[in-house]
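Protocol step 4 of 6: structure prediction from sequence.
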Amino acid sequence: MSSTFGKLFSVTTWGESHGPAVGAVLDGCPAGIPLSEADVQSFLDRRRPGQGKMTTARDEKDQVRILSGVFEGKTTGTPISFAVFNEDQRSHDYADIEKWYRPGHADLCYDLKYGFRDYRGGGRSSARETIGRVAAGAVAQKFMDMVAKTEFIAWVDSIGDVDCPKFDVNSLTREMVEASPVRCPDAGASAKMEAAVLEAKSSGDSVGGTVCLLIKNVPAALGEPVFDKLDALLAQAMLSIPACKGFEVGSGFQASRMRGSAHNDEIFFDGERYRTRTNNAGGIVGGISNGENIFCRMAFKPTATISQLQKTAGRGGENGELAAKGRHDPCVAVRAPVIVESMAALVLADLFLQQKRNSL
């Protein structure tokens, strides 16, 4: 089972949902970057469970420990190890899942692949694995801010059939996003989304949503022309997040309805650098960043584990029913923005170091 992402700036996540701890090892981070546990904690606080009615009631403080790679408040250039110890597991809630496969969950596929699985909370298929991604992503965001003032802002664009109205994304701030309990910057849509999540929760169900990502101050020339295209790597990063089922960049699928004369972004030189008057490409052309803002949109399915009675099959080949127990998010999209930002930052940090090496 591979758990490593990236080439030069790479992260390996480890741990299970109901094991002693979860975490990550970040390799390839340059030396001399100021870094403290508080820097990482601020990102983990946005991801952690128990934030209110919109998320799972599992009460984890997710306090991070940096075990290596930092000395006197700066990175040393050696691997940085992060650990977050689990404190509020209720493994007995998953006793039924030892026998029965949850519809929509990875239980069956894990057994088909490995012939064995950790059924306590889903093991590695649990979204708790993303703690390591967010810890490493916090460092990646700090690195990209230092080298290029690059900024990553993700927000919830829809939940169920409730959409966030169109707005000027270039005026968006992270504070505007975090002011909403569902991380939607529009107050009216936020209230409707909250009602949709609570309605699904009250009926023992779950609901899906979409998350948008804006990356500002992107260095030009990141990405490779063929297999390691920037948009391809972003797609891999996003689709590796639990419950993410769709990805588009720029005008995305809407481009299939347009003509080239309308979709092509006009290029001009502003006296300092090349720009485009529109951004249908979403800041990426030919797999390479053009210096404009990157805009992406991701689709997240409804949480698979629900308390409604569902028909399923068991490990012994028997057919039956399961009403899953445990504490789960009624809408995974609500906690996804910081994970989306983190994965995007890991992609850009890795490509930035590759481009710097290639240009020497």
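Step 5 (inspection) to follow. The first strand starts at residue 4 and ends at 5.
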